[in-house]
Design a protein that fits this description.
The protein has 13 helices and 18 strands. It is α/β, with parallel strands linked by helices. The chain folds into two domains: about 130 residues, Roll (Urease, subunit C, domain 1); about 325 residues, TIM Barrel (Alpha-Beta Barrel), CATH 3.20.20. The strands form three sheets. Strands 1, 2, 3, 4, 5, 14, 15 and 16 form an eight-stranded mixed sheet that branches.
Length: about 475
């Protein structure tokens, strides 16, 4: 059937209008860079962490946020649908203490990074004047200002299901402020979730007989003085400004101003404490200094879990469990304390959970995500429940870091940091299939195994089969 001539003349207009509407629909469903902004993961087992798992449920992601979760959820027509049959959906994992995405200070190595924050020389540059010239003190440094998106470990952590980190500067007593980062973005600023999330404080002496503070006593006294100075500044500054002709001008002290800002924001203070003596000392000092403290290290918490729980102070537990140095003299004597520490450190998470103390995990000096999961499995073997382990990487970590309103669980309104795996995420054989960070989709591909060398046999040589290309879901 032919259209009348008057209808034929309008056909190009109708086609153009249809194409324009299609263009608007497509671009509303995609971001500026052409990436989709709406997703629906259907038929999946959803571990929300905020409540019981949902069997054969749906998660809807819209413009970087979780829009809906449940078994009877409306799917937007523009959503890209991912069939999650046989898969499990988790909140994105949080590494609550690492140098991921940050430049490494000069002279550091893996061993030095294992117990952060650590003493050492601060970055090159002048230090603000103050008592004793404020040695090893640079609290104005903020990890969010030093992000290196070229860090290759970002992709490795992301591919393993880690969507968020607390990245911490290193070096000195007050090395700088840690930032909560999401592990995706076009620019460094896109990574930042909370720039001023934590203030690490090292309670270890800098060493050296002629340096200040060269001892533990000197370091504790110095930190106490810094907090006293900051509180004095908080009281003196408004009085000075209100009475310009009646009081002497206050000298500028960058440390006092910055530390006072952290106190006003109630920014958490990470007190380094790994053995039981350090932990008990840190608990006493936190009460004395009246700071919102979180213990950092905590590996000997199995001995003092009750005291930690009573204090209501949370712990970030270092997953780099103690072990004997690989180059150690096999004939050298080992103390009973060393042997006991290496044997029982991995039982600390279970002891903290039993005592009712809140804790989260951080990777410390571990070089790869596989080592993180290996350490978690060791903690499970020592009595930690899988549910508690998952909370330590998600909800509890988010609560400790002050970002629980946006991260840590799968709930409507939270940032769409979501991980899809083909089973229990802590199982050694489980594979991460998809990762969403701020609603951006990353489809994870397994690396193909390397080609096997020719295998010699008695009468002939047969080449082993090779696997070529990527294995994709």
């Amino acid at each position: 059937m032919r259209l009348p001539s008057s209808r034929r003349c309008c056909l190009p207009v109708l086609v153009a209008a249809g194409m324009f509407l299609l263009f608007l629909w497509t671009h509303s469903a995609r971001g500026e860079g052409g990436e989709p902004r709406y997703f629906a993961i259907i038929n999946a087992r959803i571990v929300t962490v905020a409540g019981p798992p949902i069997e054969k449920g749906t998660v809807v992601i819209a413009r970087g946020l979780i829009q809906a979760v449940g078994t009877s959820v409306a799917i937007p027509p523009e959503a890209w649908v991912i069939d999650g049959a046989g898969l499990t959906v988790y909140p994105g994992l949080i590494d609550a203490g690492t140098d991921l995405g940050l430049p490494k200070p000069e002279g550091t190595d893996e061993a030095a990074r294992a117990d952060r924050p650590r003493p050492g020389a601060p970055p090159a540059g002048e230090i603000a004047s103050g008592p004793q010239d404020r040695p090893a003190t640079t609290p104005w440094r903020v990890a969010a200002d030093e992000i290196k998106t070229s860090d290759k470990r970002i992709a490795a952590w992301r591919n393993a299901g880690f969507t968020t980190t607390l990245s911490l500067p290193a070096g000195g007593i007050f090395p700088g402020q840690g930032s909560v980062l999401n592990l995706a973005g076009e620019r460094a600023g896109d990574f930042v979730v909370k720039p001023d999330a934590a203030l690490p404080v090292s309670l270890k002496g800098l060493g050296g007989f002629f340096s200040f503070p060269g001892s533990l006593m000197g370091t504790v006294a110095y930190v106490r003085q810094v907090y006293d100075d900051a509180r004095w500044f908080a009281q003196a500054e408004p009085i000075s400004e209100a009475n310009p002709g009646k009081s002497e001008r206050l000298p500028y002290d960058r440390t006092e101003r910055v530390i006072n800002g952290t106190l006003e924001r109630k920014e958490i203070v990470l007190l380094s404490a790994n053995n039981s003596v350090e932990i008990l000392r840190a608990l006493r000092l936190a009460a004395e200094w009246k700071v919102p403290a979180v213990l950092f290290g905590g590996q000997e918490g199995y001995d003092v879990a009750g005291a930690i729980a009573t204090s209501k102070i949370a712990v970030l537990v270092n997953l780099k469990w103690p072990e004997r140095a690989k180059d150690a003299d096999p004939e050298a004597e080992q103390t009973l304390r060393e042997l006991r520490f290496r044997d029982r450190a991995s039982s600390t998470p279970a002891a903290l959970a039993k005592a009712g103390a809140k804790f989260a995990f951080y990777s410390g000096g571990l070089a790869a995500p596989k080592d993180i999961f290996k350490s978690v499995r060791k903690a499970m073997e020592a009595g930690l429940a899988p549910e508690a382990a998952l909370r330590a990487f998600t909800m509890d970590a988010a609560e400790i870091l002050g970002v629980s309103e946006r991260l840590g669980t799968i709930e409507p309104g939270k940032i769409a940091n979501v991980v899809v795996a083909d089973g229990d995420i802590f199982n050694e054989k489980a594979k991460v299939k998809d990762v969403f960070i701020d609603g951006r989709w990353f489809e994870i591909h397994e690396e193909a195994p390397p080609d096997k060398p020719a295998e010699k046999k008695p009468e002939r040589v047969e080449e082993a089969a090779t696997v070529d290309g990527e294995v994709s879901r």
